[in-house]
């Protein structure tokens, strides 16, 4: 597994790097023998250290977690424990994921745009109903089953996931509802 361990406004020493590689590697190997790369970023905000970890699996799925603590090692351990909890919840499905799939998850390209917030003082936006695009990016849209999409959304800790449905190829969305349940939007419908 390839590791990218870095710090924002802090120096990540050899001891912390070695600790992250051994502990994170052990956690991931319990649930999936095929991780491809991991990115761990440490940052500091006043007295708090934050650890963000993203692990890409060879199946195309991504696991992500974040934690903060007063010590850098404690922040990493809390982050690792959250990732362990997410992986434990989907342990059987992660191990069986490769049996159902001949190929890894297929990703399609999609445009992603950041629109300027509406400003009441702006004369330019008042004259036009079109929002102002301030950034353009490429996004990847996976082709998944609905169950795998829910699993990917939860593993990534995302509030929603846009995906292409394996059954019919249409674009679908799964999202975390305010009541704690998961919502599924399928514009194709049943008829």
UniProtKB/TrEMBL annotation:
GO molecular function: ribosomal small subunit binding
Keyword Cytoplasm assigned: yes
Pfam families in alphabetical order: Ribosom_S30AE_C, Ribosomal_S30AE
GO cellular-component term (any): cytosolic small ribosomal subunit
Key words of the record: Cytoplasm, Translation regulation
GO biological process, one term: negative regulation of translational elongation
Main location: cytoplasm
Compartments reported by the entry: Cytoplasm
InterPro entries: HPF/YfiA_ribosome-assoc, HPF_long/plastid, RHF-like, RHF/RaiA, Ribosom_S30AE_C, Ribosom_S30AE_C_sf
Source taxon at top rank: Bacteria
Domain Sigma 54 modulation/S30EA ribosomal protein C-terminal: 130-183
Membrane-spanning residues: none
Protein role: Required for dimerization of active 70S ribosomes into 100S ribosomes in stationary phase; 100S ribosomes are translationally inactive and sometimes present during exponential growth.
Subunit structure: Interacts with 100S ribosomes. Associates exclusively with 100S ribosomes, which are dimers of 70S ribosomes.
Homology family: Belongs to the HPF/YfiA ribosome-associated protein family. Long HPF subfamily.
Protein name: Ribosome hibernation promoting factor
């Amino acid at each position: 597994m390839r590791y990218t361990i870095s710090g924002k406004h802090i120096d990540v020493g050899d001891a912390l790097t070695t600790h992250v590689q051994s502990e994170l590697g052990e956690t991931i190997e319990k649930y999936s023998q095929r991780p491809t790369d991991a990115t761990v970023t440490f940052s500091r905000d006043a007295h708090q250290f934050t650890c963000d970890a993203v692990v890409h699996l060879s199946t195309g799925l991504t696991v992500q977690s974040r934690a903060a603590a007063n010590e850098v090692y404690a922040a990493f351990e809390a982050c690792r424990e959250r990732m362990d909890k997410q992986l434990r919840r989907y342990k059987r499905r992660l191990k069986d994921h490769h049996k159902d799939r001949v190929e890894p998850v297929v990703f399609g390209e999609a445009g992603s745009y950041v629109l300027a917030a509406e400003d009441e003082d702006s004369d330019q936006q008042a004259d036009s109903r079109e929002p102002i695009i301030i950034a353009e990016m490429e996004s990847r849209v996976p082709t998944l089953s609905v169950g795998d999409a829910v699993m990917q959304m939860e593993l990534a800790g995302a509030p929603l996931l846009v995906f292409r449905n394996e059954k019919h190829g249409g674009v679908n969305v799964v999202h975390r509802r305010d009541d704690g349940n998961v919502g599924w939007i399928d514009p194709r419908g049943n008829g």
